[in-house]
């Protein structure tokens, strides 16, 4: 299964906007930082804008900037904004009726994975964009 990278790209974009707050950024500038196309970046920016995490304007002189202070934006905010998939998913194969494991594994595993997902989200909520920017500036 291919890994989904929309969350990490969104964090990259938000860090790019937060790192250089003195100037507005264009999707082309942000795309250069990620090393991808501006049209791909604009799809992610649209989700971040819809969530109120960034402000954008369209057109030839279009720009992007943070919509909140970096200390007010958590990684969970970004994760939820881009509607990234859950960390794990359960297979969709049909149950084998005579097998007790096959008939029960999905519900048992779902409980365990929901706890794991909640733990991950709780952890993301404790890390701000400001925290990341501070670590980037140390590098």
Automatic annotation (TrEMBL):
The residue stretches assigned to a coiled coil in this entry are: none
Please name the GO terms that the record assigns under molecular function: DNA-binding transcription factor activity
Q: List the transmembrane segments.
A: none
Q: Which Gene3D superfamilies match?
A: Winged helix-like DNA-binding domain superfamily/Winged helix DNA-binding domain
One cellular-component annotation, GO? cytosol
Which InterPro entries does the UniProt record give? Tscrpt_reg_Rrf2 (IPR000944), WH-like_DNA-bd_sf (IPR036388), WH_DNA-bd_sf (IPR036390)
Q: What name is this protein filed under?
A: Rrf2 family transcriptional regulator
User: Which organism's genome codes for this protein?
Assistant: Luteolibacter yonseiensis
């Amino acid at each position: 299964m291919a890994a989904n990278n929309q969350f990490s790209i969104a964090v990259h974009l938000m860090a790019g906007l937060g790192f250089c707050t003195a100037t507005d950024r264009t999707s082309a500038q942000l795309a250069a930082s990620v090393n991808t196309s501006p049209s791909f970046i604009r799809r992610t920016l649209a989700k971040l804008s819809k969530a109120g995490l960034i402000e954008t304007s369209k057109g030839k002189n279009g720009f992007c900037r943070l919509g909140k202070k970096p200390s007010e934006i958590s990684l969970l905010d970004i994760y939820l904004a881009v509607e990234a998939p859950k960390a794990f998913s359960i297979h969709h194969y049909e149950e084998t009726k005579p097998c007790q494991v096959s008939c029960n594994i999905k519900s048992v595993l779902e409980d365990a994975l929901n706890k794991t997902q909640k733990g991950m989200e709780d952890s993301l909520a404790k890390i701000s964009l400001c925290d990341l920017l501070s670590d980037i500036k140390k590098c």
